[in-house]
Amino acid sequence: MHLFCTPSILKCLAFLSLFNVALAASATDWLSRSIYQVLTDRFALTDDAGTPCDTAPQLYCNGTFKGIVNHLEYIQAMGFDAIWISPVVTNLEGNSAGEGDAYHGYWTQDITTINKHFGTSDDLKALSKALHSRGMYLMLDVVINHFASFGLPNDTTISAYGTFNAPDLFHPQCFISDYNNQTNVEQCWLGDTTVALADLNTESQTVIDGWNKWITGMVSEYSLDGLRIDTLKHVRKPFWPAFQQAAGVYAVGEVLINDTSYASDYSNFIDGVLDYPGYYALTQAFSSTSGNMSLLLETSHQTQSLYKNGAFSTAAFLENHDQPRFQSTVHDQSLVKNAMTWSFVTDAIPILYQGQEQGYGGGNVPANREALWLSAYVTSNTLHGHVTSLNSARKAAIAANSSYTSVPMVVSSPSESTILVSKLPMLAFMSNVGAFGSYNAVGGGYQPNEALVETLSCKTLNADGNGNINFASTDGLPMVCEFL
Ligand SMILES: *[C@@H]1O[C@H](CO)[C@@H](O)[C@H](O)[C@H]1NC(C)=O
Ligand SMILES: *[C@@H]1O[C@H](CO)[C@@H](O)[C@H](O)[C@H]1NC(C)=O
Ligand SMILES: *[C@@H]1O[C@H](CO)[C@@H](O)[C@H](O)[C@H]1NC(C)=O
Ligand SMILES: *[C@@H]1O[C@H](CO)[C@@H](O)[C@H](O)[C@H]1NC(C)=O
Ligand SMILES: *[C@@H]1O[C@H](CO)[C@@H](O)[C@H](O)[C@H]1NC(C)=O
Ligand SMILES: *[C@@H]1O[C@H](CO)[C@@H](O)[C@H](O)[C@H]1NC(C)=O
């Protein structure tokens, strides 16, 4: 099966997944998917005018749902079969004088209407339909923890909050002051006096019923396939199982923390957790030629043992809209390619943040929210090809082995600069020796003398008489091996 080094396999697999879309998508359905994170305001303009977008003032750059529809081919041709889009509800209007405006979608004001900057309710339905007709899934970002206010909210502000328009539906005002006190994290407020994030009283039955009814309606009205839940750790854990059930689709939550024990407990309350501890270990391991590979190894072993369903309970990423781009600090393209490989070869659901494939290098928020249209969506650059190969290799491995998304990977670190993920028929070697380094690695589990292909270079090779491969790299590049 040499197909995965050609684009044809992608079309073929995209066609196959058409049959998955009609029913509500479960965690199992999502495990074989690959997610492209779209920042709606920064992905595509309706008219493709290529208007400049300065990230610094934090204003709307006017990307739309229609723009996304027009560029789905760009996403699907890289092998992604799901997108995660920004929150869609109506946000605070106007400028906060300091933190810009609500182009990111996280400043909820009214959950009963759609943010007009992104389009209409019908435009969102059209996006959902366009995705489904390509066999792709739609994941919606939802903010449940809080509503937003310019300055501290007063009765007038709260009366504009639609569904939750009474002061007693919110926790009394206090800003979070102690991250070691979970009650403080859950009941005090995020934000500050410029933009306050009024914390919903998620102990209140009115609030619980309001959210559960809302999410059932949203999933049904827009035929959503999954949810990304913002600030999951700021809402008490027992709130989530009923919310997840009301949604009826896969949900993955954001637990921003560098602590696997803390993050993993959430997998007992919701389908999936964004793998932040893994992100910290991953970025550290490939940060330089002296990055710490044993930290990545140790963290991934903890992930496998602590989450409810091991690493299958997680979604893995190297970049997102809240963290500096990897290339804001790392320029060695060998390190970059190795780091990008990780999320696509582990048990986790891979997520790629828009612009990584274009080599974007913005630092902290807001610099990391560059408009994708400024790249002209070119498909000729090296990282775009790398992402396409990674998706293709993953899909081929899933297609070749029915236990790929249920039997846990085996991760080992053959040397201090290399890490090996074994998920037969895929073996993935990554290293942080960098572009001027070289490494050797041995992996096994194949048939004696079996014909294999290294999917990133499309070079063929053979297993030895013991079913092992002896791999030597002279440029530090990763290697992802499979059957020919
Ligand atoms: C976005 O649209 C608003 C309202 O039409 C306009 O004022 C603004 O200049 C646009 N932004 C960009 C970056 O074109
Ligand atoms: C309530 O706060 C808003 C700003 O969010 C302000 O414009 C308004 O004047 C305030 N109303 C009262 C009654 O204080
Ligand atoms: C934890 O935070 C809550 C909410 O702010 C507060 O009431 C409580 O006293 C704090 N507990 C401790 C031990 O500091
Ligand atoms: C994350 O946690 C690990 C383990 O405690 C630690 O070694 C590492 O330095 C932390 N990383 C960051 C970025 O704080
Ligand atoms: C690398 O990470 C491991 C595992 O967390 C830790 O024990 C070790 O001290 C770290 N090494 C360096 C050089 O920081
Ligand atoms: C399929 O995966 C299982 C579990 O990892 C493994 O034991 C088996 O060898 C794999 N089969 C092939 C043909 O790679």
TrEMBL record:
<feature type="binding site">
    <location>
        <position position="369"/>
    </location>
    <ligand>
        <name>substrate</name>
    </ligand>
</feature>
<feature type="binding site">
    <location>
        <position position="145"/>
    </location>
    <ligand>
        <name>Ca(2+) 1</name>
    </ligand>
</feature>
<feature type="binding site">
    <location>
        <position position="322"/>
    </location>
    <ligand>
        <name>substrate</name>
    </ligand>
</feature>
<protein>
    <recommendedName>
        <fullName>alpha-amylase</fullName>
        <ecNumber>3.2.1.1</ecNumber>
    </recommendedName>
</protein>
<feature type="binding site">
    <location>
        <position position="230"/>
    </location>
    <ligand>
        <name>Ca(2+) 2</name>
    </ligand>
</feature>
<feature type="binding site">
    <location>
        <position position="254"/>
    </location>
    <ligand>
        <name>Ca(2+) 2</name>
    </ligand>
</feature>
<keyword id="KW-0106">Calcium</keyword>
<keyword id="KW-0732">Signal</keyword>
<feature type="active site" description="Proton donor">
    <location>
        <position position="254"/>
    </location>
</feature>
<dbReference type="InterPro" id="IPR013780">
    <property type="entry name" value="Glyco_hydro_b"/>
</dbReference>
<feature type="binding site">
    <location>
        <position position="199"/>
    </location>
    <ligand>
        <name>Ca(2+) 1</name>
    </ligand>
</feature>
<feature type="site" description="Transition state stabilizer">
    <location>
        <position position="322"/>
    </location>
</feature>
<dbReference type="Pfam" id="PF00128">
    <property type="entry name" value="Alpha-amylase"/>
</dbReference>
<feature type="binding site">
    <location>
        <position position="234"/>
    </location>
    <ligand>
        <name>Ca(2+) 1</name>
    </ligand>
</feature>
<feature type="binding site">
    <location>
        <position position="228"/>
    </location>
    <ligand>
        <name>substrate</name>
    </ligand>
</feature>
<dbReference type="InterPro" id="IPR015340">
    <property type="entry name" value="A_amylase_C_dom"/>
</dbReference>
<dbReference type="Pfam" id="PF09260">
    <property type="entry name" value="A_amylase_dom_C"/>
</dbReference>
<comment type="similarity">
    <text>Belongs to the glycosyl hydrolase 13 family.</text>
</comment>
<keyword id="KW-0479">Metal-binding</keyword>
<keyword id="KW-0119">Carbohydrate metabolism</keyword>
<feature type="binding site">
    <location>
        <position position="107"/>
    </location>
    <ligand>
        <name>substrate</name>
    </ligand>
</feature>
<dbReference type="GO" id="GO:0004556">
    <property type="term" value="F:alpha-amylase activity"/>
</dbReference>
<feature type="domain" description="Glycosyl hydrolase family 13 catalytic">
    <location>
        <begin position="37"/>
        <end position="394"/>
    </location>
</feature>
<feature type="binding site">
    <location>
        <position position="186"/>
    </location>
    <ligand>
        <name>Ca(2+) 1</name>
    </ligand>
</feature>
<dbReference type="InterPro" id="IPR017853">
    <property type="entry name" value="GH"/>
</dbReference>
<keyword id="KW-0326">Glycosidase</keyword>
<feature type="active site" description="Nucleophile">
    <location>
        <position position="230"/>
    </location>
</feature>
<feature type="binding site">
    <location>
        <position position="58"/>
    </location>
    <ligand>
        <name>substrate</name>
    </ligand>
</feature>
<feature type="disulfide bond">
    <location>
        <begin position="174"/>
        <end position="188"/>
    </location>
</feature>
<keyword id="KW-0325">Glycoprotein</keyword>
<dbReference type="GO" id="GO:0005509">
    <property type="term" value="F:calcium ion binding"/>
</dbReference>
<feature type="disulfide bond">
    <location>
        <begin position="53"/>
        <end position="61"/>
    </location>
</feature>
<feature type="binding site">
    <location>
        <position position="146"/>
    </location>
    <ligand>
        <name>substrate</name>
    </ligand>
</feature>
<keyword id="KW-1015">Disulfide bond</keyword>
<feature type="signal peptide">
    <location>
        <begin position="1"/>
        <end position="24"/>
    </location>
</feature>
<dbReference type="InterPro" id="IPR006047">
    <property type="entry name" value="GH13_cat_dom"/>
</dbReference>
<keyword id="KW-0378">Hydrolase</keyword>
<dbReference type="GO" id="GO:0016052">
    <property type="term" value="P:carbohydrate catabolic process"/>
</dbReference>
<dbReference type="InterPro" id="IPR013777">
    <property type="entry name" value="A-amylase-like"/>
</dbReference>
